[in-house]
Design a protein that fits this description.
Helix 2 packs antiparallel against helix 3 (64-88) and helix 9 packs across helix 10 (315-331). The chain has 406 residues and is of the alpha/beta class. It has helices at 16-31, 46-58, 64-88, 118-124, 126-133, 159-170, 204-212, 254-257, 284-294, 315-331, 360-370, 394-402; strands at residues 3-8, 35-40, 93-96, 137-141, 144-146, 152-154, 175-180, 201-203, 231-236, 247-250, 260-263, 268-274, 299-304, 308-314, 337-350, 375-380, 384-390. It is an enzyme of class 2 (transferase).
Length: 406
């Protein structure tokens, strides 16, 4: 029997009519013979309103324990209403909040940004399985957890999405469905570009970067909990149909889930182009990179400053790239000179944990500082850190950095 986890965001249950439509969508899937567990956020803007009231009434005197309990009331209200709406449609339902002995999400005691205890949560999720086996539709509070002392905790922003993906994994669900106020992931913000298109699918890594840089459809932290063996999609609430087509979330791949440190096998060369105030000159970066692309030369990294642009290329391409870029420098009045530097090593450190690990760059670079190894350039994304340094230091630096992930 197919099992689905359906998570409804605050906007998608923003009023009574929307809750009724959402409950009917759940019941429709149940009547098809599927097992369904529902995860709900607080009703639209409830949490923000509670936080505003707390700020006005207590300002900085509120404790973390008090705040966690207060903001939890949004989700605890939602589950009661949603479960009752399901039962009004003739199907047995039961709400599950942190005070229930069937509560599944176990965390540490960091009350306002708790970390999940996976083993304990997997064990407690068996209670949710039992409910579904009995023909009951469980409605579970998103965003919330409970520590081993019985205190309410919260999972931080995006917590309801975390709850959905986490339960999907623990329940070995076939699909996790995220129901939002948009019909899926768009090629860009439709409020900014009218002809934005809905994507049929998107990878976890792409979704993570989009979400980190402003896309509101899904919180990047939640994607850490996405099981690669479980289907997932984002759909709009307006359909009132959990079978509706949306945007499928693919992955993560095995590589994206691994903690890895790699040293590029061959030396890389660095070319520095300088010119007065070139950072403020339109089109210079495009001119430099496009000429290399036309000559089929790969760029491993780019660094920009007020008066310089540094490009990292294959050593085998370095002399030809230097010659080609020299022609650009001579012809462009905004550029004055360029140089071909030393052989460079490139180390890439990757981990899905980086997204919620403060200070990871200092953790990675500290062993290099202690061993007097100079960093030529460093860049980072949500899941990786790339370090460029002198080739002679490459192997030693690789061993030092690799130890960070152990």
């Amino acid at each position: 029997m197919e099992t689905i986890v359906a998570k409804f965001g605050g906007t998608s249950i923003g009023n009574g009519k929307r809750i009724r439509k959402a409950a009917q969508a759940v019941v429709n899937e149940y009547m098809k013979g599927k097992k369904v567990v529902v995860v709900v956020s607080a009703i639209d803007k409830t949490t923000d309103e509670l936080l505003h009231i707390v700020d006005e009434s207590m300002e900085d005197t509120v404790t973390e324990k008090q705040l966690a309990e207060i903001v939890s009331m949004g989700e605890m209200t939602s589950v009661r209403i949603f479960s009752s709406a399901i039962e009004s449609l003739g199907v047995k339902s039961e709400y599950v909040d942190p005070f229930s002995n069937k509560w599944p999400i176990v965390t540490d005691s960091t009350l306002l940004s708790a970390k999940v205890d996976f083993e304990a949560t997997e064990n407690k999720s068996k209670e949710i399985m039992k409910m579904m086996d009995q023909g009951i539709i469980p409605v579970v509070c998103g965003f919330l957890g409970r520590d081993t002392e019985g205190y309410i905790t919260t999972l931080g922003r995006g917590g309801s999405d975390i709850t959905a993906f986490l339960l999907g994994h623990c329940l070995m669900a076939d699909e996790v469905i995220i129901v939002t106020d948009v019909g899926g992931v768009m090629s860009t913000d439709p409020n900014m570009v009218e002809d934005a298109k809905k994507l049929d699918k998107i990878s976890v890594e792409e979704m993570r970067d989009l979400a980190t840089h402003g896309a509101q459809v899904l919180h990047p932290h939640a994607l850490k909990y996405k099981d690669p063996n479980i289907n997932a999609k984002i759909i709009g609430f307006e359909h009132g149909d959990l079978s509706a087509v949306g945007t499928d979330i693919i992955g993560p791949s095995e590589q994206e889930m691994l903690k890895t440190t790699t040293l590029h096998g061959e030396p890389i060369s660095v070319i520095a182009v300088v010119g007065d105030g070139i950072l403020n000159k339109t089109g210079i970066l495009a001119e430099l990179t496009s000429i290399l692309a036309k000559n089929n030369m790969n760029i491993f990294g780019i660094s920009t400053g007020q008066i310089s642009i540094t490009v990292f290329v294959n050593k085998k391409d370095a002399e030809e790239a230097h010659r080609i870029l020299h022609d650009v420098v001579v012809e462009n009045e905004n550029l004055s000179s360029l140089s071909l530097g030393k052989e460079i090593a490139m180390i890439t450190v990757t981990s899905p944990d980086f997204i919620d690990t403060p200070g990871i760059i200092s953790d990675v670079t500290e062993p290099l500082r202690k061993n007097n190894i100079n960093i030529v350039e460093i860049s980072s994304s949500q899941t990786s850190v790339v370090i460029f340094l002198e080739w002679k230091d490459g192997k030693k630096a690789y061993e030092l950095v690799r130890g960070v992930l152990k």
